[in-house]
C-alpha cells in the first residue's frame, strides 16, 4: 500500500484510543500491513487469546462509488460505544457526586470552624460572665453585710433616741415641778411681804396711839432706836391681831389714823390756830413745839411741830426722821393726810402742804445729820406743792447750802406711793425705795425710805433714808428734817 493510506490508519487508531481510553488495554497493530484494506483480521484467533479485537475502517483512495460496510460489525461497535458512554456518564456522575460531597464537606468544615470559633468566643464570654457573676455575688454579700451593720447602728440610734426622749420627758416633768415650786414660793413671798407691810402699818398705828397717850401725859420719852427690819421681825409675833387692826385701818368708815392723833394732841402752847409757824413766832411764841394751824382759805385744822431753834426760827416741820420708829412705807391716802408722831417721826401730809404753800411763798430747808454727828443743810428759795388733781407735783426754787443739791432733779415731778405710780420708771419706784416721794426714775434723794441703823446699809434696793449728794445712795442718814417758812 502507499503512504496516504498509512496516515489515515494512524488517525483512526488515535481516535479509538481517545474514545476507549485505553480500557481495552494496549492494542497491537497488526503487522500484516501488507494485507488489503478490505481484509479483516481473524476474530477467531483473538477470541481464543482473550484479547480485544479491532476493526479498521480505511477509506479507499479515490473511492467514488457506494461504500459498502459490513452492518454486523458496525452494530457491535456501536453497542460497545454506548456501553462505554454509559459507563463514562456514570463515572462522570460519580465524579460530580464526589465533587459535590467534597464541596459539602468543605462547607461543613468551614461551618465547623466557624462554630468552633463561636464556641470558643462563647466560652470566653461565659467565663467573663461567670467572673462578673462571682464579683456581683461577692459585692452583694458585702452590701448585705454593710446593710446589716447599718441596721444595727440604726437600731442603736433608735434605742438611744428613745432613751433621750424618755430623759427629756423626765426633765420636763422635773422642770414643771420646779416651776410650780418657784411659783408657789413666789406667791408665799408676795403674801409674806404683804403681811409684813400690814403688820408694819398696824405697828405704826399702835405707835401713834401710844405716842398720843405719852403726849397727853406730857412726859415724852425718847423712843428706842429700833430699825425697820427689827420692827418687822417683832411685828410677826401678833400677826392675827395686827391684821385685824389693819383691816379696820383700811376700812373707809374707820377714822383716819393720822387725823385722830393730830386732833387729839393737846396744843402745847397757846391755842391758835395760826396760819403757820412763822405766824406763831410773830405772835411771840418762840418755843419750839406742837401748834395748831389753819391755813388761810382753808377750814382744815392741823397740828405741826414749829421749830424756832434753828435758822432764826419760824419753821413749820413737814417731815422728820430720827429713830426709825415710824414706818414710812404707806399708801396714797396716808401720805395725803399725814402720819406719825408730832414730837418724833412724822409726815405732815400732802394735802396740808398744798394748803400751807398756797397761802404764801415758802422756802424749804432740809437739815440732815449723819452717824458721825455731822450736820448739813440744803435750802431752796421756793417750795410749793400742786393740788391732788396734779398729784401734788413738786415746784422747787433755787438751791443753796452745804449738803449738795439732790432734790432739784425731782422738781416738777408728781408724788408716787406704793399704790399710785406716777413716776417715769417702768415699775413703781415707791415699791423699790419703800416710801412715797416725788420720784423721777427713780431718785437722787428719798427721805421717806427705810431708816437703817449705822449709815451704810445692805439691801437689794436703794431704799434707805438718803441724800445722794451727801454720803451717796447707800448711806442711810441718822436724822433728817424738812421744814418750810414763808418768805
Ligand atoms: Ca412708774
TrEMBL record:
Positions of the UniProt region annotated as Disordered: 26-49
Cellular component annotations (GO), alphabetically ordered: fibrinogen complex
GO biological process: blood coagulation, common pathway; fibrinolysis; platelet aggregation; positive regulation of heterotypic cell-cell adhesion
UniProt keyword annotation of Coiled coil present: yes
Pfam families on file: Fibrinogen_C
Residue ranges constituting the Fibrinogen C-terminal domain according to the UniProt record: 268-487
Entry keyword set: Coiled coil, Disulfide bond, Glycoprotein, Secreted, Signal
CDD domains hit by this protein: FReD (cd00087)
SUPFAM superfamilies: Fibrinogen C-terminal domain-like (SSF56496)
UniProt subcellular location: Secreted
Signal peptide: 1-22
GO molecular function, one term: protein-macromolecule adaptor activity
Coiled coil: 130-181
Keyword Metal-binding: no
Protein name stated in the entry: Angiopoietin like 6
Organism whose genome encodes this protein: Astyanax mexicanus (Blind cave fish)
Amino acid at each position: 500500500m502507499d503512504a496516504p493510506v498509512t496516515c489515515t490508519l494512524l488517525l483512526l487508531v488515535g481516535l479509538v484510543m481517545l474514545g476507549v481510553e485505553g480500557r481495552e488495554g494496549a492494542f497491537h497493530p497488526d503487522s500484516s500491513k501488507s494485507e488489503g484494506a478490505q481484509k479483516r483480521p481473524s476474530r477467531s484467533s483473538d477470541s481464543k487469546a482473550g484479547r480485544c479485537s479491532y476493526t479498521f475502517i480505511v477509506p479507499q483512495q479515490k473511492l467514488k462509488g457506494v461504500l459498502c460496510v459490513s452492518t454486523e460489525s458496525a452494530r457491535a461497535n456501536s453497542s460497545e460505544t454506548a456501553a462505554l458512554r454509559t459507563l463514562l456518564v456514570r463515572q462522570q456522575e460519580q465524579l460530580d457526586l464526589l465533587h459535590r460531597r467534597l464541596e459539602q464537606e468543605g462547607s461543613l468544615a468551614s461551618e465547623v470552624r466557624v462554630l468552633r470559633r463561636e464556641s470558643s468566643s462563647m466560652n470566653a464570654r461565659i467565663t467573663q460572665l461567670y467572673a462578673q457573676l462571682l464579683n456581683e455575688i461577692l459585692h452583694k454579700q458585702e452590701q448585705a453585710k454593710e446593710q446589716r451593720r447599718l441596721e444595727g447602728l440604726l437600731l442603736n440610734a433608735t434605742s438611744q433616741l428613745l432613751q433621750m426622749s424618755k430623759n427629756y420627758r423626765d426633765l420636763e416633768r422635773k422642770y414643771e415641778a420646779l416651776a410650780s415650786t418657784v411659783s408657789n414660793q413666789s406667791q408665799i413671798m408676795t403674801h409674806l411681804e404683804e403681811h409684813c407691810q400690814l403688820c408694819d402699818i398696824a405697828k405704826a398705828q399702835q405707835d401713834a396711839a401710844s405716842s398720843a397717850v405719852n403726849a397727853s401725859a406730857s412726859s415724852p420719852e425718847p423712843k428706842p432706836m429700833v430699825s425697820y427690819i427689827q420692827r418687822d421681825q417683832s411685828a410677826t409675833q401678833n400677826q392675827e391681831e395686827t391684821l385685824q387692826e389693819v383691816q379696820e385701818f383700811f376700812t373707809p368708815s374707820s377714822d383716819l389714823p393720822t387725823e385722830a392723833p393730830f386732833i387729839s394732841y393737846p396744843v402745847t402752847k397757846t391755842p391758835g390756830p395760826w396760819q403757820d409757824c412763822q405766824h406763831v413766832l410773830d405772835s411771840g411764841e418762840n418755843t419750839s413745839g406742837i401748834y395748831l394751824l389753819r391755813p388761810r382759805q382753808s377750814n382744815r385744822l392741823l397740828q405741826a411741830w414749829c421749830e424756832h431753834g434753828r435758822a432764826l426760827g419760824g419753821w413749820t416741820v413737814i417731815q422728820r426722821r430720827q429713830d426709825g420708829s415710824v414706818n414710812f412705807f404707806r399708801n396714797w391716802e396716808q401720805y395725803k393726810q399725814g402720819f406719825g408722831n408730832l414730837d418724833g417721826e412724822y409726815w405732815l401730809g400732802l394735802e396740808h402742804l398744798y394748803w400751807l404753800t398756797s397761802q404764801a411763798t415758802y422756802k424749804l430747808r432740809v437739815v440732815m445729820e449723819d452717824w458721825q454727828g455731822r450736820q448739813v443743810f440744803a435750802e431752796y428759795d421756793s417750795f410749793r406743792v400742786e393740788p391732788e388733781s396734779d398729784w401734788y407735783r413738786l415746784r422747787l426754787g433755787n438751791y443753796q447750802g452745804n449738803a449738795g443739791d439732790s432734790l432739784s432733779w425731782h422738781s416738777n415731778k408728781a408724788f408716787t406711793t406704793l399704790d399710785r405710780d406716777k413716776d417715769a420708771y417702768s415699775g413703781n419706784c415707791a415699791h423699790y425705795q419703800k416710801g412715797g416721794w416725788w420720784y423721777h426714775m427713780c431718785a437722787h434723794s428719798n427721805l421717806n425710805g427705810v431708816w437703817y441703823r449705822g449709815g451704810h446699809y445692805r439691801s437689794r434696793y436703794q431704799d434707805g433714808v438718803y441724800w445722794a449728794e451727801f454720803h451717796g445712795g447707800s448711806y442711810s442718814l441718822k436724822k433728817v428734817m424738812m421744814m418750810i417758812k414763808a418768805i
